[in-house]
Amino acid sequence: MKVWQKAMYLTDLTYSYCKDLPADERFNLIDQINRCSVSIASNIAEGSGKRTNTHNAEFLSTSLSSSYELETQLLICRRRGYGHSDKLDNCLQLFDEVQKMIFAFREHVINKAVIS
């Protein structure tokens, strides 16, 4: 799925971005950013393996929730002046695309669940 592939690439970008963050954020923002980005792709994958569209939609909702959490952490990094701004901009740009794709995919899955 294209949304899963983009979410995986977002994870790659966020891990790369986090390498430039202050070491004292290792167990705070860095850990949280990495866990959120992994959660986005993981929940897309897990939902696709579920038997019903309703269950798939639930995992897509969790993925979407993780995306909002990731956005918050990345914006905190921007406010704090952490990392390279070009890498952060790339993360946020791809994040926006992935979030829109998850939302659209979830709506499609929900509509399929209603029809079924």
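(ticket continues) Second input and output from the same batch:
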Amino acid sequence: MADHYDVLGVSRDASPEEIKKAYRRLARELHPDVNPGADAQERFKLVTHAYDVLSDPDQRQRYDLGGDGGAFGGGGFGGFGDIFETFFGGGGGGRAGRPRDRRERGQDALVRVTLQLGDVVFGTHRDIEVDTAVLCETCQGSCCQPGTQPVTCDVCHGSGQVQRTVRSLLGNVVTAAPCTACQGYGTTIPYPCATCQGQGRVRARRTVSIDIPAGVETGLRLQLPGSGEVGPGGGPKGDLYLEVTVESHEVFSRDGDDLLATLEVSMPDAVLGTTTTIDALDGTVDLEVRPGVQSGDVLTIKERGVTPLRGTRRGDLRVGVQVVTPTRLDAKERALIEEFAARTKAPGPQLAQFHQGLFAKLRDRFRAG
């Protein structure tokens, strides 16, 4: 087989633009309408095949690495239509394309929904109102008045295209373009449906029932295939995308599948310890505060967080302790505190040794706050 670069007369490092210029020059010289000789016809096939290979980056790479560069059919000029369409704006060889289908896929729709933090613990159900295109009940997507149907276009005779002959440097070239009488459908609708004006669909508000899974978070998009709008001509529905926003909570924040909260503990309770009941997002929880608890300590309640989006084991509820120091003391209270200080003989304030764990607890407690 002849080398493709030699056939086009270019070097092996020729740019795509140089390859295109070489092909156009040879095509004008060797096209059968210009040069009807048998030798020219055979060379034209070789030139076209060489261009097919070298103009495609993947095929050219395989060819340069020793591949055969694609099979060469050589059976007439039916395979050159795409090339003529590229250079001359029409289909080569007088080939007519297929008519357009009136039924087209509908567009996707996007709906935004706002959830409370409690909704994402176990998931929730919502009925969403969507203003979109639905199937026309009068014509059921046929676009025609009931009892009528489309008729074959009398201009293109159902092909959806019309052909015309254009004189060019290569002689007469037959091109094809969509039929303007039927817009390329091959049929016309003499009696369009009055309800949808021949569109096969109408605008309407409908309700979509959605089960929102647990574990969703702000920015997540849920896809509901086939729940979008109906396409033109009663075509298949597009998809519906649900974009989630989770509102901030005044008490709880989220860290992955864990819930975070802050528990204010009075100084006496911090010293002596206590038990308390807190209201979690899914009911009450008994919590024990041990004697001597410090600000920054984290109390963990297992599996009282968020159910993960993929999985079943819930996260934890992590409660950071904040010891509240009294700011207003009467004389008796102040005397008791002074007596306590004298008895304990605690050292004065001083810098403590750096402890990464303390900062990690504080970071966890306020990360999503």
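Agent notes: The two ends are 72 Å apart (CA to CA). Confidence is low (pLDDT under 50) at residues 71-96. Closing as not reproducible unless the customer responds.
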